[in-house]
Fold this sequence. Notes:
Elements: H1 5-20, H2 32-39, H3 50-60, H4 83-95, H5 106-123, E1 130-134, H6 137-154, H7 160-163, E2 172-176, H8 181-189, E3 198-200, H9 210-218, E4 224-229, H10 241-250, E5 254-258, E6 283-287, H11 288-291, E7 299-303, H12 306-313, H13 344-378, E8 383-385, E9 393-398, H14 405-419, E10 425-429, E11 432-438, H15 446-462
Helix pairs in contact: 1-3, 4-13, 5-13, 6-8, 6-12, 9-10, 13-15, 14-15
Amino acid sequence: MDETEALTNAARHAKRYLTSVADAPVFARTDVATLRDRLGGPLPESPTDAAAVVDELVRATQGGLVASTGPRYFGFVVGGATTAAVAADWLATAWDQNAAAYPLSPAGSVVEEVAARWLLELLGLPATASLGFTTGATMANFICLAAARSRVLADRGWDVERDGLFGAPPIDVVVGQQRHVSLELSLRYLGLGTDRVREVAVDDQGAMRAEAAAEVIAACDGPIVVCTQVGNVNSGAFDPVGQVCEAAHEQGAWVHVDGAFGLWAAAAPARRHLTLGVETADSWATDAHKWLNVPYDSGLAFVADAEAHHRAMSLLAASYLVFGEPGERDNSSWVPEMSRRGRGFPIWAAVRQLGRSGVADLVERCCVLAQRFADQLGAEPDVEVLNDVVLNQVLVRFRAADGDHDAHTRRVIAAVQREGTSWFGGTTWQDRAAMRISVSNWSTTAGDVDRAVAAVLAAARDS
Length: 463
């Protein structure tokens, strides 16, 4: 048995997929029953040749993969994957490093150290901030808020890592009315709850009102954590983070920024004004698998107070664990995971391939293409663009002759998804059904937008 034949087969199938994804139907074409039949069956009783297993997996999943890495997938905020990042991710899998501690993988440690420095500079964040490489923005929010919880309780004389939350001073958590659901999940994980939050009113684009935030913060009487957002998941709107930080820091509050995709606007000179004051916050969460276009799963948790970050995440001592010497980075000291893959390798490769100007161009190009969607669709008499297109998000509503615009909009979305030229998701915005367009793939072109618009307008006429 040739042990390398399976790897050769995998590389061949992967290349074929990557070179054909641009022309493939965007959504899956195989139903769940067929996939279960192909992939299922009884537990194998004996070994199977590895190369044959790879071939079988490719056959079994045929038609069941979503071309979300392709140029015409506009659902959610799903980035593609740059060539260098994909190749580095393959190597990371082949190397199979447990990148938890320096002795386990010196290269896995140093690559995250270097990538962290590059990312802080790229996003205009404090050079002394710490960074944890985690699975996605949900866990990045969790890590940042764990550091926030540690610091604001320590300021009140309470050691939450030692004593837990029983008897601790209650923390006032301030959030915008349009916060993302992943933030609420993080609050649940941390024992801070979702129903005890203090909400801040937002404007018609979903962004916090600065004066309303100041009033809510001033009314708090305990330790305070303020959660802001850059890049509303529907409209792309930005909270006025700088103004919120001024009001919050006067009260000794910690300000966190949920910037799953919007934080990347700081890397593009033409969009940087949207992030004004973001660097004055205390922590920031974002995804590399969104606008940096690296493979899943890749979240980033930045914390200005490295001591609080380390305290919240660092492991207790155990006799069998060996960590790095002073000056050597132990990656597990900044995230909840001990056993973890080398996430830094594809991030390093993506930044190395694109450089500062390439990342800026990627972000700006996606924003320009989002505006192209808005201009072309908005020019149609029975199509309405619902948001101010400031970033990569567009909300579109389709008017119906019978006046039931919600039902018509949902029919159009379903028809577009079935047709397969492109894929868009649906949402509800200000109690109205809307098509949600997210442009965040490095390979998307103006031609892809034009093809998608033509397919959408055809579906609207026929629905």
